[in-house]
Write a structure and sequence with these properties.
Elements: E1 2-8, H1 13-24, E2 29-35, E3 42-47, H2 52-61, E4 66-68
Antiparallel strand pairs: 1-3, 1-4, 2-3
C-alpha cells in the first residue's frame, strides 16, 4: 500500500463533501481524509497502484486545486 499526500484548497467540510464523489471515483483508493486544520488543507490517500498524477488530474479536471507534497 502507498500513501500519497497533497496540498489542496478544500478549506471547508462543504468543499470536501463536494469533492468526495471525484475522490471516490478514483480506482485504487483504500482510505482518504482532508486535514482542514492544516494550512495546506492536506489530502492524505492510502492506495494501491495509483500515481499522484492520476489524483491531481482527476481533482484538477473537476475544478479543484491539488498538488502533491514531496518530502
Amino acid at each position: 500500500m502507498d500513501v500519497l499526500v497533497f496540498k489542496t484548497e478544500l478549506h471547508s467540510a462543504e468543499l470536501v463533501s463536494k469533492a468526495s464523489p471525484v475522490i471516490h471515483s478514483i480506482r485504487g483508493i483504500r482510505k482518504w481524509n482532508v486535514d482542514l486544520q492544516d494550512c495546506d488543507r492536506v489530502l492524505r490517500i492510502e492506495c494501491f497502484d495509483l500515481t499522484a498524477r492520476e489524483v491531481e488530474n482527476a481533482l484538477q479536471g473537476a475544478g479543484y486545486f491539488c498538488e502533491e507534497l514531496n518530502d
